Amino acid sequence: MSNRPFLLITNDDGIHASGIRHLWEAVCDFADVAIVAPQSEKSGSGLSITWTRPLLIQKISWDDHTPAWSVNGTPADCVKMALSMILDRAPDLVISGVNRGSNAGRTVLYSGTIGGIIEGVLKGVPGIAFSFSDFETPPVAATKKYILALIEHVLKKPLPKGSFLNVNFPVDCQHLIKGIKLSRQGKGYWSEAPEKRTHPEGTPYYWLGGQWRSFEEEADSDVAHLEQGYIAAAPIHVNDLTDLTVYNEHKKHIEALFTAPEEEHKPRPLESVQ
Questions:
Q1: Fewer beta carbons under 10 A from the terminal one: N or C of the chain?
Q2: Would you say 1 and 125 are in contact if contact means Cβ atoms under 8 Å apart?
Q3: Which of 140, 227, 218 is nearest to 185 (CA)?
Q4: Mean pLDDT of the 149-166 span
Q5: pLDDT tens sequence across 47-82
Q6: Which residues have a Cβ under 8 Å from the Cβ of 208 and sit 6 or more positions away?
Q7: Half-sphere exposure (Cβ direction) of 228: Cα atoms closer than 13 Å
């Protein structure tokens, strides 16, 4: 067995997208790699999984050293099937991307790129999601050293259980990268901008569309760092989703709303059988 790290690659743009090959090219000399990715684009699928139809796994020709499979489901489906059915050993790390478009701000709540990573994290496998703010994929040489540095860091200094890194490259990362900033997740996101259209038969339909909705951001947010030309790496935690402030402040009051009187809890005498 190889002493090199073992990485699982997935994405949400589909197994034939240029971004996933970019990510593979950045790591294939450094690690052993397996690829399990959606058969077709699943952008915006978040952490969704497929319940209503069967999942099909298809072996894909990649190269002589990298096994690859497509799944006709979401990124979360891909990671589920990889960890439970396809791979013969657990990966050291799941990496996802490189996504076409930013996943900064609250877009993480919709992103299939992130969904694949969360699925791995929930099963105890750490992960890193990578996204380009540009829709054009830059040469691997422009980003490889940053991708490898972040992967090596997480392998050497593991993140806490339930945490992962959400990494976004700035626009024109081929020329203008100033460095890497550890960031807090920002507030901006893609808001709906529905466009009404009419089918030739006369039935109206809607194309959801989207437009970036900006908020006043903290200076150390990923959105702010990207605008300044930095790679933004935001640590996100999904292990305990409980809002402990609400839990502590409201527990006594909410539980008292439906607490039965003490006498209702007293055992009743058994009735004799006639």
A1: C
A2: no
A3: 218
A4: 96
A5: 999 999 999 999 999 998 999 999 999 999 999 999
A6: 192, 193, 194
A7: 17
Which CATH code is given to the segment(s) 6-188+217-241? Answer: 3.40.1210.10
The full 3-state SS of 174-191, as one line of letters, equals CCCCCCEEECECCCCEEE
Matching residue, tokens 């700035």: 170
For 188-247, write each residue's pLDDT tens digit: 666 666 788 888 888 888 776 666 656 677 898 999 999 999 999 999 999 888 999 999
3-state secondary structure (DSSP) of residue 21: helix
Tokens of residue 177, six digits: 């990268």
DSSP element (H, E) containing 150: helix 140-156
In the numeric block, which tokens belong to residue 274?
A: 């006639």
Question: Which has the closest alpha carbon to 100: 139, 131, 142?
Answer: 131
Using a cut of 0.70, tell me whether the model's pTM lies above it: yes
CA angle 134, 135, 138 (to 5 degrees): 70
pLDDT tens track for 97-138: 999 999 999 889 999 999 999 999 999 999 999 999 988 888
- CA Rg value for the chain: 23
CA-to-CA distance for 73 and 55, rounded, in angstroms?
7
The domains of the chain are located at 6-188+217-241
Structure tokens, 164: 């992962």
Residue 194 CA to residue 82 CA, distance in Å, equals 36
Q: How far is CA 79 from CA 7, 47, 58, 179, in A?
A: 12, 11, 14, 31
Given this model, what pLDDT does residue 265 score? 59
Q: Which of 150, 211, 219, 209 is nearest to 186 (CA)?
A: 219
Q: Where are the alpha helices (DSSP H) in 160-268?
A: 222-227, 244-256
